[in-house]
């Protein structure tokens, strides 16, 4: 028996972990239903891996098979496409249409919304990595190295690109974010050591390109997975700096409306 004026179940916000899980599941479903996002995050990396591994189009500068060079770079590209390009575009248009403004006044705190988006990115990346690894293994890839080093590179790479993507989405108009994110994606695809070895660039240019997060991620993954190197501290340090700068700037300058 309940007292007059009370309700069962008791109204109020759900526990914070449950709200974050629900929002993360929603973000993941929305991403998987978006054909353009799937093209960017799944189809393009898969096609690049198959095409450049089976057809002698680009000189990778690798001594071994092409897939041994390309697979780590394509894994880095998958992180870039999801954590940076896809997240920047989706968040930019959510901001334009007022979705973020409305979610910001819901029981889910703003940091919880960002945490949910990050969880959705990580879930998508896991699916990408599983798919791309299966394709690469079918093409004859023979990975080496420490899985912990690989996981650490992927986590720091995700943090770095997420910060940069949120910074872009929270400061530029949606149309500008769409254009800029796609342009950056194409530029880093060519100049980030993904399918073209950085050794092909002049020394001074290469020194600058090696400081980019995509170069650090693809280079670190390649050192570990192809060459069996130990912990790639230099690449991890570069990614950590980008992660701190990107996430810090996003927290400082992100505008919700």
UniProtKB/TrEMBL annotation:
Give one GO biological process term: response to antibiotic
Q: Identify the Pfam families for this entry.
A: ABC2_membrane
What does the record say about its membrane topology? Multi-pass membrane protein
**PROSITE patterns found in the cross-reference section:** ABC_TM2
Question: Please, which domain of life does this record's source organism belong to?
Answer: Bacteria
Report the GO molecular function annotations: ABC-type transporter activity
- Swiss-Prot/TrEMBL keywords: Antibiotic resistance, Cell membrane, Membrane, Transmembrane, Transmembrane helix, Transport
Q: Which residues cross the membrane?
A: 38-58, 70-93, 114-142, 148-169, 176-198, 236-254
| Protein localization | Cell membrane; Membrane
Residues in ABC transmembrane type-2 domain copies: 36-257
Q: Name one GO cellular component term.
A: ATP-binding cassette (ABC) transporter complex
The answer on whether this UniProt entry bears the keyword Transferase reads no
Entry keyword Cell membrane: yes
What protein family does this chain belong to?
Belongs to the ABC-2 integral membrane protein family.
What is the official name of this protein in its record? Answer: Transport permease protein
What is the source species?
Answer: Streptomyces violaceusniger
């Amino acid at each position: 028996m309940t007292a007059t004026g009370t309700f069962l179940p008791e109204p109020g916000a759900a526990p914070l972990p449950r709200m974050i899980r629900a929002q993360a599941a929603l973000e993941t479903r929305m991403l998987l239903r978006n054909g353009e996002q799937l093209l960017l995050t799944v189809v393009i990396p898969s096609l690049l891996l198959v095409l450049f591994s089976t057809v002698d189009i680009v000189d990778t500068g690798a001594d071994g098979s092409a897939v041994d060079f390309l697979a780590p770079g394509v894994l880095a590209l998958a992180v870039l496409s999801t954590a940076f390009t896809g997240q920047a575009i989706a968040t930019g248009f959510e901001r334009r249409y007022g979705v973020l403004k409305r979610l910001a006044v819901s029981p889910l705190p703003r940091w919880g919304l960002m945490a949910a988006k990050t969880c959705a990115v990580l879930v998508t990346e896991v699916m990408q990595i599983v798919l791309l690894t299966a394709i690469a293994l079918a093409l004859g890839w023979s990975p080496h190295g420490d899985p912990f080093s690989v996981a650490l590179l992927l986590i720091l790479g995700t943090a770095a690109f997420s910060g940069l993507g949120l910074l872009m989405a929270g400061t530029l108009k949606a149309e500008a974010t769409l254009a800029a994110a796609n342009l950056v994606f194409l530029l880093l695809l060519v100049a980030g050591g993904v399918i073209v070895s950085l050794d092909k660039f002049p020394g001074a240019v290469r020194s600058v390109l090696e400081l980019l997060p995509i170069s650090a991620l693809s280079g670190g993954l390649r050192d570990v997975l192809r060459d069996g190197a130990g912990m790639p501290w230099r690449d991890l340090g570069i990614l950590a700096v980008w992660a701190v700068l990107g996430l810090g700037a996003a927290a400082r300058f992100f505008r919700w409306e």
